[in-house]
Design goal:
The chain is mostly beta strands. It has 1 helix and 5 strands; from the N terminus they run E-E-H-E-E-E. A 5-stranded mixed sheet has the order 2-1-5-3-4, with helices on one face. The longest helix is centred in the N-terminal third of the chain and has 7 residues. The radius of gyration is 12 Å and the shape is globular.
């Protein structure tokens, strides 16, 4: 099986999987602002249309409120 790594999760990769699919799969309701796939950053509006390559390393970066 081909897998992708997300923090301390290992998820089975499937063809056409998007960042949005991944967030559903790890059952994480947190509102992430940005994802990093290997060395590429993707913003939230593109989560639905950005597919994840096999053997990717993914970092989900949360929104940070400041003031």
């Amino acid at each position: 099986a081909i897998v992708i790594k997300v923090a301390d999760h290992t998820i089975e990769w499937r063809e056409g999987m998007t960042i949005s699919d991944l967030i559903v799969e790890i059952n994480d309701p947190y509102p992430y602002a940005v994802a990093r796939i290997n060395q590429t950053y993707i913003s939230r509006p593109n989560f639905d249309k950005t597919t994840i390559p096999d053997n990717a390393e993914i970092y989900l970066i949360p929104m940070v409120a400041g003031g």
